[in-house]
Amino acid sequence: MIRIEGVVAFVAVVEAGSVSEAARRLRLSKSVVSERLSELERSLGGMLLHRTTRKLTLTEDGTAFLERATRIVREIEEAAADMAVRRGSLAGPIRIAAPVTFGRMHLGPALYPFLAAHPDIELTLDIDDRRVDVSSEGYDAVIRHGPIIDSRLVVWKLSRSRRLLVAAPDYLARAGRPAALADLDRHKGIYYTNRGVADWRFQTPEGALVVRAKLAVGINNGDMIRDAAVAGLGIALLPAFIAGPAVKEGLLEEIDVGYRPEPEFIYMAHPEGRNPSAKLRAVADHLRKTFKDPPYWDPAG
What we know:
With 301 residues, this protein is an alpha/beta fold. The chain has three domains: 4-84, Winged helix-like DNA-binding domain superfamily/Winged helix DNA-binding domain (Arc Repressor Mutant, subunit A); 89-161 and 265-291, Periplasmic binding protein-like II (D-Maltodextrin-Binding Protein, domain 2, 3-Layer(aba) Sandwich), CATH 3.40.190; 163-262, Periplasmic binding protein-like II (D-Maltodextrin-Binding Protein, domain 2, 3-Layer(aba) Sandwich), CATH 3.40.190.10. It is built from nine helices and 14 strands. The strands form four sheets. A five-stranded mixed β-sheet has the order 4-3-5-14-6. Strands 11-8-12-7-13 form a five-stranded mixed β-sheet. A two-stranded antiparallel ribbon has the order 1-2. A hairpin with a 4-residue loop joins strand 1 (49-51) and strand 2. Helix 1 (4-16) crosses helix 2 (19-26), helix 1 packs across helix 3 and helix 1 crosses helix 4. The protein is elongated. The N and C termini lie far apart (60 Å). Pfam families: HTH_1 (PF00126), LysR_substrate (PF03466).
């Protein structure tokens, strides 16, 4: 007889990429997860995974079994969550990925009161600036800032997100204040490398216009981009949730070049075709109410 614990272990190992990481997520020992995998394979009469010291790969049988196994695990989790909702509570596991700076500055402080009010929710929050694959990596949802480009995701907007063109007063005193988009060509820019060279996009009557200053420094972290701008290294295009406090304190000044950066959003996205759980909807609703629209962190709010 196939035991559901083995199916859960198998799906977790595939999504995590290793037995040790799956054990961490399941809060079990590696030996327990390995035994459950072996028992599942004995019940099915075939190998599901090729195991080496460096990696795990799916066998042909494992590939065939994975889709239905994943669906079974998700259905059980959602059924358990629905039962909790019927009893008037939100419960069960939920796994969300979010960017580093926004997670530290705003998402965490917004979520902590929600989790305190719903102690039966088991949240795993993975903070990472890389673009995760929500479906294949086993996330219930991802929270991101910026343009929405993955058509396989169902997107819920949490709040608008304005980006500010900013620089330190010292830099503007030395290099001059740009008054038009063309002036930016003569300035130094601090760029977010995860977005590539076309990051500075502005709305004009003719459509989106990409502008690029001379590279001062490229960084893949928003906190450090802000710090580099405060240090006077150049101009940066930053979300208001990062730059807003520094603008209010006078450490950075917003620059008006006649056109606004393209609008962006803080959003939550979940895989297409997967029915979102009541607890995921509750998290999204709570974040909308907490962030507000326009958001509380925007100095022009």
